[in-house]
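Checklist before submission:
- one chain only
- standard amino acids only
- sequence pasted in full

Submission:
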Amino acid sequence: SDATIENKATSKEIRYLIKANKAKQDPRYLAAVEKGIDYLLEAQYENGGWSQYYPDHSSYRGEITYNDNAMINVLNILQDIVEGKNDFDQVNSSYKTKAEQSVQKGISCILKTQIAVNGKLTVWCAQYDEKTMKPAKARSFELISLSGCESVGITDFLMRIKKPSAEIKQAVNSAMAWFERSKIEGYELVSVDDPKSPTEKDKVLVAKPGSVIWARFYDIDSNEPFFSGRDGIKKKTIAEIDKERRVGYSWYGTWPAK
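Returned file contents:
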């Protein structure tokens, strides 16, 4: 019951097998691909979202999950089927209609979950309640926020759509404007030696002229970056959280740069 799309699981295997089938034309490979696609189609909520796990929905596993591009990895496979790209022209033609319908539901979910602050569209949270479609927390240190990371994959996907609606264009332009005003200039996160640490490493934010980064999480109301350890308490700086989480999670990145 614990099949998952987390960390590219399932989507990575499907992509590997469809490429292998192109080279070897083995009916077992194509059958496995199509079973994998069937799973993805079955796992989609009626509201268009995908949970991190299916059918296990315990704890936060049932939330609509953009985290680590889980839902976007699925949508990119389905859009490849629609477009006949990346070797997905090999699957049974009946999947094209199914994939097209699924993608449209997925886009509807994306548009409905884009967060508006004071009437102005911004970006997305990493996960949402599967019933209310409101932003939700996942692990103790993954609090409700505007995501400087996951929102990039979502925006990239919307930009794939060949004939975007006015709503899709607005979503993309609003996200791009948010990326621009939320960038952090003149700093970078670096790894430093720390003999006292179990990993012998630590991470610190240092000044670097010309550098541009984004935080993983931004407060929805203030748009200020925040950080949290396993205690789930918001902190204003990365230096304030416990070292285990400081070193073991991606708090800053250049995700929106390209």
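Reviewer check: Residues 229 and 245 are 6 Å apart (CA to CA).
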